[in-house]
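Here comes my example:
=====
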Amino acid sequence: MIGKFWRRVLISAAAGLALSAQAARAEWLRAETEHFIIYGDSSERRMRDYARKVERFDSLLRAYYPIRTEHHLPKLEIFLAQGRADMLRAYPGIEASVGGYYSPNSGRIHAVVNRESGMGDAVLFHEYGHHFMFQMASAAYPAWFVEGFAEYYAHSEVEGDTVRIGLFSPGRMNSLTRGNAMAPLRDVIGWRILKSGRYPGHDYYAQSWALTHYMLSDPERAKSLGRYLAAVSRGADPVAAVEPELGRTPERLADELRRYLLRGITVLTPQVDLPDADVKITRLDAADSQLVWLDLRLDRYRLNDGADNDEEEQAGEDESADDIAEARAKSQEQRRLLIAQALETASRFPDSEKAALVAARAHILAGSPDKALERLTPWIEGDDAASSALRVGAYAAMAQARNSNEDQPDMMRRARSYLSRGLEKDPLDFRTYIALDDSRRGTAGYPTANDLATLEVAAALAPQSFDARMRAADAYLAHQRPAEAVLMLTPVVNSPHGGSSSEQAKAQLARAQALVQASASVVRSEAAPAAEPSSPTS
């Protein structure tokens, strides 16, 4: 008899083949604006309208929170899924209720939106709120505001000439007004209720949204919120800072919040100029169209070790050894099927650069870097080689180096040569800087000052990447710069969606904070006046 798990695997494999055949009929468009690159199997008119909508939303956020940087930030890629089948192509096993998702991993920062879901736009606006917040100069916000900010703006209306801020999800409001007791606001602000088990997790997000809504609905409260956030960013405890910065205790603030919700929340109609976006539409060729989802899925895997950025196994305390083993077997089988499907589909397009990239990554994950380099050779040897091809070629060379003793130095030099050329082609791709760091790890003297500078650039280009931030923090600690490590790690720790990365970052942050405190103690000791010598006795 076929076991329960393997029956699911076979069903999944059959579904994957069916989905692949369906995807072959797709004709994809690419819409590019100032801040976004959007892919969709849709009409040009719908693509243009959607691109203008998300650009207007970005303009709305920038009107209130201007972003000032010395460099251009990479554009966010958005993939438009047309229903459940596309969502499964993007992320096999994703729950049917999910209207979209956002991935800030170091393989590819992107969002996927189900256009057939009634919550698709709200999901994108929510996740883009997180993405946007990380681009601000000061991103060390408390966890409740991180979530509250995203939810507050998620339901904004930016259709046509209409701009409305402060609309709400009925589900969030029901969580607060259905008669159940609200969690103590101290626990919400201190981010303690999720682990208590006493209150449902969605209550945390609902109360974070409500508190943000209340503070931003009045100009004076908004000013005090700004002072509060500045204090927390400087290191103040989020709960302890409430009374001195907001002018009331958490208990009084909770009472005000309840009254605000009962009498009706404020919906703002700001008079802001949201310019119409310039949209450039191009049509993907047959190869690129058929490889969209495979290309995206492969980018979730780290090419240096083959681990999945988005599907890290996070077994709960109550999961049995059998459950864990089954989850691992499922993950391994999904990876095997992805590799097989990627190689088969790419083989249909021998003259396609996208197919070469898909095949090369699949070969690397399969443990065949020689085949990866062979497939990539036409695309990396010429002067017109793209940075993406050079980066994947570098990872293939690094994999060769790991498998070789005699040729290892030559392979690593080859990898760094590819990456150097890649930076010349595109100096704004943070993934190339991450790859440079991968090529340097384990070498004598790592991390050098140059290694640290490389990671600083990666984190500046992709402040949303937890991986880039944590790597940079490690380098700061190695160079005895714990204060900078604290600034780099705090947004990761405060992210409600950090998962295992947040847990790892907490350990890093505790170490960095201890070093900062130790350094401060030394400074205070050195600054203390020396004791006067006692008068000699007669």
Observations:
- Residues 168-266 form one domain.
- Residues 1-24, 311-318, 530-538 have pLDDT under 50 and may be disordered.
